[in-house]
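Students often ask what a holo structure prediction actually looks like on paper. The answer is less mysterious than it sounds. You provide the chain, you provide the ligand, and the output is a string of discrete structure tokens encoding the 3D arrangement of the protein together with CO-5-methoxybenzimidazolylcobamide.
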Amino acid sequence: MSDAVFDEISGLLQRGKAKDIVVAVQKALDDGVGAGDILEKGLISGMNIIGGKFKNGEVFVPEVLVAARAMNHASGVLKPALAKAGVKPVGKALICTVKGDLHDIGKNLVKMMIEGNGIEAVDLGVDVPPEKVVEAVKTTDAKVLCLSALLTTTMLAQKDIIDALKTAGIRDKVKIMVGGAPVTQSYADEIGADAYTPDAASAAEVCRAFY
Ligand code: B1M
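The corresponding structure tokens follow.
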């Protein structure tokens, strides 16, 4: 199979062409292209390109959001075929915005980029208390926990969650990633997180590396 079909899908994703990408992905499936190849060589590859451009300041939040929306549409078309082909996500990650914090744009971007890297993201939402996170870590087989905080006041809740997991005796069940505008590497080190990343693209890269 020529790479042209994957280049086309990757290009449509990068340009955020949600309707066109659905048609292109369906056509590729109808032509017998493997769902796993479409995901890896078309969609994830396109998402990685847009993620890199976002990291370098070549594109901005709106472009990433439309690309992510296109990714979601295309993934919807692929889902049944992927399930049939037995291509499973590499693993599961939990994600939330911490207690007291309602900002969800960054969290949603991180979620979309993680999903774009073949990881199933379980979204616990915003304003999430430590008890709910502890429960989710206990009851799912997620390997990574992603905590977003946008306020200098709520970043403290990232530590509360780590402490609650320690108290529950399940701290080591997950790798903990922290991020959000006020969060820094030194803060992440101080509270005992496993990783800090400054943006959604690097969060997805680091998250993928944990699997
Ligand atoms: Co709010 N807000 N806000 N706000 N708001 C900020 C954060 C603020 C910096 C504005 C300012 O004063 N300049 C300020 C915080 C000050 C501080 O604590 N230092 C602030 C404040 C004070 C408040 C309120 C208290 C205002 C008030 O009511 N008086 C209030 C708090 C509400 C609450 O949460 N309890 C509030 C409310 C709101 C809105 C509801 C109006 C709205 C949120 C809407 C929504 O999210 N659905 C809002 C918004 C939009 C902002 C700004 C303008 C934009 C935030 C945003 O979405 N940025 C923001 C000012 C600013 O940032 N310029 C501001 C775009 C987004 C893509 O970036 O979320 O940083 P960001 O995510 C990035 C990275 O941080 C990183 O990746 C993302 C993409 O690269 N990242 C991670 C995020 N999570 C990560 C997790 C990771 C890794 C990377 O690993 C797990």
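The chain has nine helices and five strands.
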